[in-house]
Design brief:
The complex is a heterodimer of chains A (about 240) and B (about 230). Chain A is built from 9 helices and 10 strands. Chain A has helices at about 45-55, 70-75, 75-80, 100-110, 115-125, 140-150, 170-185, 195-200, 225-235, and strands spanning about 10-20, 20-30, 35-40, 60-65, 70, 85, 160, 190-195, 205-210, 215-220. In chain A, helix 4 packs across helix 5 and helix 5 packs across helix 6 (about 140-150). Chain B is about 80% helix and about 0% strand. Chain B contains 9 helices and 2 strands; from the N terminus they run H-H-E-E-H-H-H-H-H-H-H. In chain B, a hairpin with a 2-residue loop joins strand 1 (about 45) and strand 2. In chain B, helix 8 (about 165-190) runs antiparallel to helix 9. Classes of the chains: A alpha/beta (about 240), B mainly alpha (about 230). The interface of A and B includes residues 52 and 110 of A.
């Protein structure tokens, strides 16, 4: 497979409909390497749908998304090797151990030496002592940390995170914030959807505020994130 | 090509690992198939004499019902926790995922058939093991045809609420040719005067059916999995 890379993801006039309901309505934005962009908005705003579109798992009803200068169809399977998704459902197999989950996905991504990769990921997740335990016995926070490492195993260029702070205690939240800053320093493109404004305040470079499937504000002006969010939703 | 089969093997191994821990699908499928055969034996065996030719139909009914039960659970592990999306996001040929799931189902049904075939032979006094190679080829070909259609439909319905109801409704009309061929071929082998040319005809039919269904399933798997 020919390697594929990009420094910018451009969403152009993208809509996504489910029957009569428009989950996303003519959304346009772009994200570049070395920035962390937050998708903020109330429930049903279209944040998860936009992440699904960016991950190529959902196709837009209209509009296009370009990764560099190529669409997903033009880039082919090589694009998926550069995408990492931490979804709201954690995409782990509860009957497998933490190590088995990571080794399975490492093998699926064609990574060399899956056991070593899994061991390194377990260390970053702080789960070395629980490596041989099945995931069904893990707390939500532990699963979240493991799922994050699963999403980052193959060092994706575009990192998509849906509510990554859910279930994390203060220490883990801070560690995740540090991890996101490290990804930014590594020139990854990071897009995360969240309700937790406190957790991401100081982490985000830009905020895209969605409501009813539309971008209502690009909150990159001054003030705290909460102020920008409120201003974006109310239009003041 | 090696990458394709590597991915298929990874999926099979993952499913086997999970199944060896829980044995949930194996036990429920086996129990269901055996119960089927036992119940039918009460109806179709009178005073120790089975109804002529009943064994062929009952064998394939047990396989079909057990197969439907297994197929209904085939993507359950991927559906739970949305692991199916993680599989689809991997940079692999998506039909390889289909092949991996199909091989898992075939392994499970092979285990069921290893129990059900001798049981039917015993309860219905059917000479199923008289032509062991031909019966094995018939079972393999019929099971592949049934399972390849079933795996595609199970994948299609993985995210649907009413998948339990819809799967048999969609599956049986399409899989009926495989079941009829299986029953007819088996009957040709176990009747008093075995008709080997007829059995070979139905084997050839199943070979054709399997080629068509596998090709179509591999072709359609990716489009049906994309939202």
């Amino acid at each position: 497979m020919t390697p594929f890379d990009f420094d910018r993801v451009t969403v152009s006039d993208v809509s996504r409909a489910y029957g009569r309901r428009r989950a996303l309505n003519r959304v346009s934005l772009s994200v570049t390497s070395g920035e962390i962009v937050g998708l903020l908005g109330p429930n049903g705003a279209g944040k998860s749908t936009l992440l699904g579109l960016l991950s190529t798992l959902i196709e837009p009803s209209s509009g296009e998304i370009r990764y560099g200068d190529k669409t997903a169809r033009e880039a082919g399977p090589a694009l998926r090797a550069r995408l990492g998704l931490l979804a709201h459902e954690l995409q782990l197999y509860p009957e497998l151990t933490a190590r088995e989950n990571l080794e399975f996905f490492a093998g699926l991504y064609g990574l060399s030496d899956p056991p070593d990769r899994a061991a390194a990921a377990l260390s970053r997740a702080g789960l070395v002592e629980r490596a041989a335990d099945t995931v069904q016995g893990f707390s939500r926070g532990m699963r979240q940390r493991l799922a994050l490492e699963r999403a980052l195993l193959h060092e994706p260029k575009l990192v998509l995170l849906d509510e990554p702070f859910t279930g994390l205690d203060e220490f883990s939240s801070r560690a995740l914030g540090d991890r996101l800053r490290q990804l930014r320093a590594d020139r990854r493109v990071v897009v995360l959807a969240t309700h937790d404004l406190e957790a991401v305040d100081g982490v985000l470079d830009r905020a895209v505020i969605l409501r009813d499937g539309r971008v209502v504000a690009l909150g990159d002006s001054g003030g705290s994130l909460r102020e920008r969010y409120r201003a974006g939703l109310t239009g003041r | 090509m090696s990458a394709f089969f590597r991915v298929a093997w990874l999926v099979v191994r993952k499913d086997l690992t999970i199944e060896m821990r829980s044995r949930e699908m194996l036990y429920t499928t086996l129990f269901f198939a055996v119960s089927c055969v036992l119940v039918f034996s009460f109806g179709f065996v009178r005073e120790g004499q089975p109804l002529e030719g009943a064994a062929a139909g009952i064998l394939w009914i047990a396989i079909a019902f057990a197969g439907t039960l297994a197929l209904g659970r085939a993507f359950e592990r991927e559906r739970y926790n949305d692991a199916l999306r993680a599989l689809l996001l991997a940079p692999v040929d998506r039909p390889a995922i289909f092949v991996g799931k199909l091989l898992g189902i075939l392994g499970l049904l092979a285990a069921v058939e290893m129990v059900v075939v001798p049981l039917v032979a015993l309860l219905f006094r059917a000479p199923l093991l008289q032509h062991p190679v031909m019966i094995m080829v018939l079972l393999a070909a019929g099971t592949i045809g049934f399972a390849s259609v079933g795996t595609l439909f199970a994948a299609m319905l993985a995210r649907t609420q009413t998948r339990g109801v819809l799967l048999p409704v969609l599956l049986y009309p399409v899989a009926i040719p495989a079941l009829i061929a299986g029953v007819s071929g088996t009957l040709a082998l176990i009747q008093a005067d075995p008709n080997l040319p007829i059995a070979r005809f139905w084997m050839a039919f199943l070979g054709f059916f399997d080629t068509v269904t596998l090709t179509l399933a591999l072709w359609f798997f990716e489009p049906v999995m994309t939202e």
